[in-house]
């Protein structure tokens, strides 16, 4: 049906019955007209097309101002926000995984205190596998900087002993 609308071919099913279908057809027809125009004419008629509610897929330039809003979060505030997130007493497994996934998306290696809070959340949920995966992710995030991961493990050693969590190296997962 989309091909028929764009090309102007006869529609075998008759006219659209619902208002949203008629609106869709109207907009598609206007876009077909807009794309058949030359590029300079599109820029000349940009305001007229915008008034009709047509969004052009690449012809018209939309202006946007990119101002920064608010202040930047300091490192201490960032750490405190994530420690608070993982220290929630009612955190569930999904929230834990979502938090770790979001944290991994940042271009940084999390501080040991954030990892400590995440490991304690794993213990509250009795999720040993997630705890080991968090340690694997930290090692992966450290990348070529070989001094970061041993430092993190050194800082987390008391927590790992207290919670009974083995490192991936102790489990032999680094040899796989």
From TrEMBL:
One of its GO terms (cellular component) is respiratory chain complex IV. Its main location: mitochondrion. Belongs to the cytochrome c oxidase subunit 5A family. It is found in: Mitochondrion inner membrane. It is a peripheral membrane protein. Keywords: Acetylation, Heme, Iron, Membrane, Metal-binding, Mitochondrion, Mitochondrion inner membrane, Phosphoprotein, Transit peptide, Ubl conjugation. One of its GO terms (molecular function) is metal ion binding. Component of the cytochrome c oxidase, the last enzyme in the mitochondrial electron transport chain which drives oxidative phosphorylation. The respiratory chain contains 3 multisubunit complexes succinate dehydrogenase (complex II, CII), ubiquinol-cytochrome c oxidoreductase (cytochrome b-c1 complex, complex III, CIII) and cytochrome c oxidase (complex IV, CIV), that cooperate to transfer electrons derived from NADH and succinate to molecular oxygen, creating an electrochemical gradient over the inner membrane that drives transmembrane transport and the ATP synthase. InterPro entries: Cyt_c_oxidase_su5A/6 (IPR003204), Cyt_c_oxidase_su5A/6_sf (IPR036545). Coiled coil: none annotated. It holds the Pfam family COX5A. Transmembrane segments: none annotated. The lineage of its organism: Eukaryota, Metazoa, Chordata, Craniata, Vertebrata. Pathway: Energy metabolism; oxidative phosphorylation. This is Cytochrome c oxidase subunit 5A, mitochondrial.
């Amino acid at each position: 049906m989309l091909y028929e609308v764009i090309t102007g071919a006869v529609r075998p099913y008759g006219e659209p019955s619902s208002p949203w279908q008629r609106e869709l057809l109207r907009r598609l027809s206007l876009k077909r007209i807009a794309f058949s125009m030359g590029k300079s004419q599109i820029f000349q008629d940009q305001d007229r097309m915008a008034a009709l509610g047509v969004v052009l897929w690449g012809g018209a330039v939309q202006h946007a101002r990119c101002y920064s809003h608010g202040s930047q979060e300091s490192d201490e505030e960032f750490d405190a926000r994530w420690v608070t997130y993982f220290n929630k007493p009612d955190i569930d497994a999904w929230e834990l995984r979502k938090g770790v996934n979001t944290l991994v998306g940042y271009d940084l290696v999390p501080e040991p205190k954030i990892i400590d809070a995440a490991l304690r959340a794993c213990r509250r949920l009795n999720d040993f596998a997630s705890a080991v995966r968090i340690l694997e992710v930290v090692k992966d995030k450290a990348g070529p900087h070989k001094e970061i991961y041993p430092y993190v493990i050194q800082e987390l050693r008391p927590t790992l002993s207290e919670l009974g969590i083995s490192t991936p190296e102790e489990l032999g997962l680094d040899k796989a």
